[in-house]
Amino acid sequence: MSVVIGAERDSAPAIAWAAQKRLMSLFLIGGFSALMIGAAIGPLQALNYADVNAYPFLRPVLQSYYEGLTIHGVLNAYVFTFFVTSGLLVYLPARELELEPNMPIWWTSFGLMTIGAVMLLYAMFDNSSSVLWTFYPPLKGSPYFYFGMTLLTLGSMVPLAAVMDLRTRWKRANPGKLTPLVTYMSAATLLMWLLAALGAAAELIVQLDPWSLGLTKHVDPIIGRTLFWWTGHPIVYFWLMPAYVSWYAFLPREAGGKLVSDPMARLTFALLLIFSMPVGTHHQLQDPGIAPVIKAIIAGLTLSVALPSLITAFTLGLSLEYAGRRRGGRGWIGWFTALPWKNPSVAAQVLAMITFIFGGAGGIVNGSFQLDNIVHNTTWIPGHFHITVGTAVTMTFMGLSFWMIPHLTGRALFSRKLALISIWLWFIGMSVFSLGMHWAGLFGVPRRAWVSELPHSEYMHVYGVAHFPLILVGVGGVILWGATAAFYVVFFGSLFGGKRNETPVHIPFTEFLAGPEGSRLAGILEYLWPITGLTFLVTLAAYLPVLIPFFQHQTFAPGWMVW
Ligand code: HAS
Ligand code: HEM
Ligand code: CU
């Protein structure tokens, strides 16, 4: 049962939702198919660090470590997340408001992203574009890569139009009322992404697309990097915020409780919209040409972006405790063990949250200017982001799919037991993997290095000091192969082989202990467009001092193909 919203539910003609469910399923299938390829490659990279070089045997498919790494990063970080998010952030608000979304707009997003993804696959698998997920110039791939990336990015911005249209129609029918929570969170996420995507869109359309076609001869790498990180930092919140939608709006109910505060959820999303944008330069703390004073200011601002996540930790911690106590949990730990751990969707999301505590702590280390000197460009960094995007977000999407596939298709989950096994294996595998990556990073083991290509004695000579943590990396990777296999048996098994459900599965919209009614905070936060405008100004204030000197001293680099 969803929360009842205004009079819309009674007066609106009943919507069948069949077309919407079909398109939502396509978004899920598109996204998770990308993850399937990406996650199959990941363990090869983990084994590389443990000195197992599988690549000579993979020549017919992958020509080099870097071709695989590009496919892994691009499919997981862009294609998987964009598809799932562009589905969820339209479907869920539409269901919350009980209004039909504008289907041509939503299909446009799907179409653009599909064409983009196919072009990217072509460019990566023909070994013309091993430019890694950051596609830093002057590494030069094929036009298919950059145009594919352009279409994928534009496609991911389109859902904003669908959500704003839904919100406007609902507001017209419900004058003076606050936007319901899921729609609010979706709108805030997509408005943030509208500003965020401008950087990469500019880099692609102005710099890289024409350059890849040969229309321009040279490229300025540092301008490219800066525009990339304009997007590349807030993109991590474009990954995270849909997971937060699930944590705030569904998990409390799935766990048997209620969300303790709706206004805190709104505050989190508004703060993420504002703070995500101006801090991308913390990825360039070791880059030349940016004044130390700017880097120090950005380091300070970076700590502010942790704030909404700390609010989230306490709000959701309390909501889970409430659920656990309602289920009979007693004492300091009893509420936690009383959570419905047998429900794979709940287990996935709670384990995702626990992992995220460590991911967040590592992020704060990265953001601290001086400490970043030690960890930058080491395996510490992939260690950090495999427990943020690679687990907190990915495992939340996996958990969400466990109720959503039955909801969309009318079929029961293929096997709850195997679903639980996949989640626990992912949690254990990623914990071991990420511990190894962080630890090896502290010994200075570089990321993005085909270390297993060295003869064993040389590998031991250079990396022997980090041999144990690097073994952990490989072991974690192998466990993750098991997790991936188990998950996809459940995912595709449910889609195509699950038993027909007797009773329909509803979207688990949560109830609140403290709702938004009468909250002054919620009232102020309702002004999403002015908040977006303010964020744009703050972003310009952060980026103009970085970019102007680069435009005044341009460099002209020819393209490189080093693979
Ligand atoms: Fe990061 C690099 C700083 C969060 C992803 N990050 C990366 C890269 C990626 C990434 C992909 O400042 C590398 C890109 C590349 O290829 O080079 N990151 C941060 C900070 C945060 C942060 C300050 N990162 C994320 C998230 C990501 C992500 C989220 C993906 C989804 N990161 C950096 C910096 C770099 C960086 C530098 C550049 C480093 C370099 O040198 O290259 C913060 O937002 C983190 C805040 C999070 C928290 C945790 C809150 C905990 C919660 C769970 C609560 C649990 C409960 C369970 C309720 C403070 C919400 C209760 C149960 C109980 C038993 C208690
Ligand atoms: C990079 C392993 C899943 C996103 C890497 C690296 C390893 C790895 C070892 C570092 C390679 C290097 O720096 O040389 C794995 C394993 C996975 C997995 C074992 C388990 C199935 C994921 C997931 C995501 C992800 C689920 C995101 C949704 C990335 C990205 C990179 C990366 C963005 C950076 C690529 C680059 O440097 O260009 N992965 N990964 N991975 N991984 Fe994963
Ligand atoms: Cu960042």
UniProtKB/TrEMBL annotation:
Domain of life: Bacteria
CC terms in the record's Gene Ontology section: membrane
PROSITE patterns (UniProt xref): COX1, COX1_CUB
Keywords assigned: Electron transport, Heme, Iron, Membrane, Metal-binding, Respiratory chain, Transmembrane, Transmembrane helix, Transport
Residues annotated as domain Cytochrome oxidase subunit I profile: 11-495
InterPro entries: Cyt_c_oxase-like_su1_dom (IPR023616), Cyt_c_oxase-like_su1_sf (IPR036927), Cyt_C_Oxase_1 (IPR000883), Cyt_c_Oxase_su1_BS (IPR023615)
Compartments where found: Membrane
Keyword Membrane: yes
GO biological process, one term: aerobic respiration
Its membrane topology: Multi-pass membrane protein
Pfam families, per the entry: COX1 (PF00115)
Transmembrane segments: 26-49, 69-92, 104-124, 144-163, 184-207, 227-251, 263-281, 293-320, 346-365, 385-406, 418-440, 460-491, 527-551
Gene Ontology terms, MF aspect: cytochrome-c oxidase activity; heme binding
PANTHER family attached to this UniProt entry: CYTOCHROME C OXIDASE SUBUNIT 1, CYTOCHROME C OXIDASE SUBUNIT I
Family membership: Belongs to the heme-copper respiratory oxidase family.
Annotated protein name in UniProt: Cytochrome c oxidase subunit 1
Species of origin: Acidiphilium rubrum
Taxon lineage: Bacteria, Pseudomonadati, Pseudomonadota, Alphaproteobacteria, Acetobacterales
